[in-house]
Amino acid sequence: MWLKPEEILLKNAFKLWVTEKGNDYFVLQRRRGYGEGGGGLTGLLVGTLDTMLDSTSKVAPFRILHQTPDSQVYWSIACGGTKEEISQHWEWLEKNIMRTLSVFDSSDDITSFVQGKIRGLIAEEGKVSCVQEDDPEKFREALLRFEKWFDLPQKEKLVTYYSCSYWRGRVPCQGWLYLSTNFLSFYSYLLGSEVKLVISWNEIWRLEKTSNVILTESIHVLANGEDHFFSMFLHLNETFLIMEQLADYSIKRLFDKETFQEEPSLSDPLQITKRGLETHARNEQFRAFFRLPKEENLLEVYESFLWVPFSHFNTLGKICLSESYLCFASQDGSQCHVIIPMREVIGVEKPDRSSRALIVCVRGKRALRFSEVRDFERLANAIRRRCGMTASPQGECQNLINHFEDNPEEVALMVGQKDSSKAVSTEALMTVFHPQDTENLDPKMLKEKMKEQSWNIHFSEYGRGTSMFCTKKTRDLIVRGIPEALRGELWMLFSGAVNDMATNPGYYSELVDQSLGTSTLATDEIERDLHRSLPEHPAFQSDTGISALRRVLTAYAYRNPKIGYCQAMNILTSVLLLYAKEEEAFWLLVAVCERMLPDYFNRRIIGALVDQAVFEELIRMHLTQLTEHMTDLTFFSSVSLSWFLTLFISVLPIESAVNVVDCFFYDGIKAILQLGLAVLDYNMEGLISSHDDAEAVTILNKFFDNVTNKDSPLPQTVQQNSVGNNDKASSISKVDVSDLIKEAYEKYGDMKSEEVESMRKRNKLYVIQTLEDTTKQNVLRVVSQEVKFSASQLDELYVFNNILLPVLLHHDPSLAYLEQYQLGFHQFSLLFSLLEPWSLCSGKDTLFLWAFRLLDENQDGLVNFKEFCCALDILYSGTFTNKLTFLFKLHQPPECQKTHCAFCFTPTGRGKVDLQAYLKQWQDEILKKEESIKDLPRINQAQFIQFSKTLYNLFHSDPEEESLYRAVARVTSLLLRMEEVGRRLQEPTSPQKSSTSPIQEAGSIPQEVEWSFAFEQILASLLNEPVLVRFFERPVDIQARLDHAKCAQLKAKTNK
């Protein structure tokens, strides 16, 4: 264990210790009387003395001391009861501390650093134990320090904290790392030097584990163009996992506020805990590995052995139990895994208590035997409870298996082959348009039948349907290509879509009925692309295929309006329809869009960009020869985009592309990345010798045109690799897709799915920050043409608008640049109160509401950044007339909004995108002419009184406040007199008009005549008061106001 450093003077001391290891800074010693040698008489004496002492006075037999070369003073820093324990501490020091100490110049600095680090480790161990014991005392102390050291909002939720070192240049600072929902914070105070760092998760561009000569293991954070390194963690992997989860959580909240609605532990940022983040990460990994629906969560894990009948041995692994599934994976994750839906379980039995075993019987004459399960009775009860069954009598599972063996015709009905679907089309299009001729078998069809036979043998050994064992042999068969007749069934199985369809019977038919006849932007785009989907295939030259494609795409757009429809979905879906029934094709599309390729099919294709960044990283790792020749790899990102979006379907002939899709449904995006590397490797020489990007593209296109599938049973009329291209391609060798895929697995198959997911997370931050930076630059470029603010001031306004706000309630990245960040009324009033140039003393809420209504031209309850900046530009840089016009228009709120209250203004949102409305708005903006003051309507009596009050409020705390008040009073009095004179001049003089009826004379009360003012009258009157003109034309420093606003907002938050 680590010890609080204490000084020990060894000079002339009695030799009770023997030095076992040593270097310039540390010494590992063994107490005499322990270990080899014993130490003679001295050792015997020491051993006897230690034996006689009680447990509280005993000295540990091993210890580590810290020293410096020029000092005789030693510091005890660790002790251990065994050689193994002390050796672990010694190895940690050598790995994490030794290289670091070389950067210090003085011995005192070295000793101070070591002492600080050891104290941090002790505190870290104490903190971990407190967390494990659910003792909140230590956490409460850390929370108080966090609130004291960092000037952050009071509601900022601290998740966890760690002891570590932060590197400033070549010198480390020992301190504490605090991880909260919105910020990464570090604090250190050593020898009078304070170091404080606060980074928003939204500002992080890269987060990764790294190592170099000085830092063996550290965490690298890139934010705002600066690199930050944190090292010497007691639990580095745990720390990195929490940081990764918080960064990912922040990004997901930014782009999809509904992502965590179904997860109570993460739905509210104020309720996030370390345990909740770890659980979320574990559930995500569990669902991704076993391809389970997003509703499934990992509930229990049991270590056990599973009897593998085809190999005749027990394999060690883990049982993972969720609400609806029992899953098993061997320890290496690839040797064997099996997924058992609870709906398929028909019996659970405990045959042998001595071996702690249980047998799970599933439909399809199969039973799985788990042994050495530590809490096997609890597991058996959990399975029964989820299946809604009672305890199975002894031997019932075996009876069920015998029954299936005697009645094999029942098996097919119980392996998920039953058809409860109400889909419009009940057959795969390939079956309809290319039925197999079983009588006339050519060599290709014979080979196809041999493939089918291989799979049937596999099914007999490994099972068929949802509870099939997936092993290395399964992958080998897939690499060779799935037979045409089994492709749809196995795609459903490996993607997990079979489970989605089984748990949602009739769902697709309902969607088809509901979406039928709807007209949206998505349906318009679908209709446009229907005839572009595999147009050379006979299935999509007929109404049968086109109608099925329309129904599937429209139903999915109706199901998931966030995605709706995206180009490339039509190509993918058309291939799915060739081999799967219509309803199955729908669920396969769901699996691809929502699980296997997340964030691919949307306006910004973030998922595809992330995987392209991963692809670039893999190119640098595996194809160094190519990277040396082409330092800029962005070319591969642009050329490979269609590879990822369409799974190579758009670049390979259809008969070859389906083999790639086979591998994708089994191995996920890993299969596409591997194949991409293999393609570049195969064309290495041509790419290196190419002179420009166009030549490189030509090389790749020629290669794809010559990828064949010699085993494909499809007729030549369907195959895209037509005979007409043979003349041009005669000099280029053909490549069989099976050989290409096999080569990809042999060279790059050692890539693990976990590593790919880690690379995805690492690159996602960079991709999203790049997109956000592009959005920012485009917005600033457009707005800068409309306002007089400098580039730096606009940049600060943008940051202030988007980052300092507590929550981005109205962020929609699917909209145009200017519309992505929107302000609702409450956010607008907060920002406007901080940034408006005058000090209003009263009536703020009403005035802010009027300003919001004035800027919200399309009346959707939201104001964008351009509209906000244009308003501020008028108030800061506008002329006297501009500012007065703005104030005048504030007092004429739209008639349709007069009923709204300042505190209940609810944005209506944009709802469904109306393309015609956008086009009309765009046309109106083009034709919009410059507004003239003559076009402004007159204001009535009540509005004029309110206008005068607003002017009074503007002058609060101004040095010329009294003069300004008198000036406004003179102007008001003058305008009233003018109006009175004008009204008298207009009084009727005709006897007919002036005479009143008897009824009016008898009972009516004379009505008060309404009066009003034109803007020109008010402007002319105010121009006669120099003090008012000076006030409105006085320049105001926007930069000082921005700085003041930042401080004011933070103070307001911390004082809540």
TrEMBL record:
Domain of life: Eukaryota
Domain EF-hand: 843-878
Keywords recorded for this protein, A-Z: Calcium, Cytoplasm, GTPase activation, Metal-binding, Repeat
Pfam families noted in UniProt: GRAM (PF02893), RabGAP-TBC (PF00566)
Location of the protein in the cell: Cytoplasm, Cytosol
GO molecular function list: calcium ion binding; GTPase activator activity
Keyword Cytoplasm: yes
Matches recorded under PROSITE patterns: EF_HAND_1, EF_HAND_2, TBC_RABGAP
GO biological process: glomerular filtration
Species name: Oncorhynchus tshawytscha (Chinook salmon)
GO cellular component terms, semicolon-separated: cytosol
Protein known as: TBC1 domain family member 8B
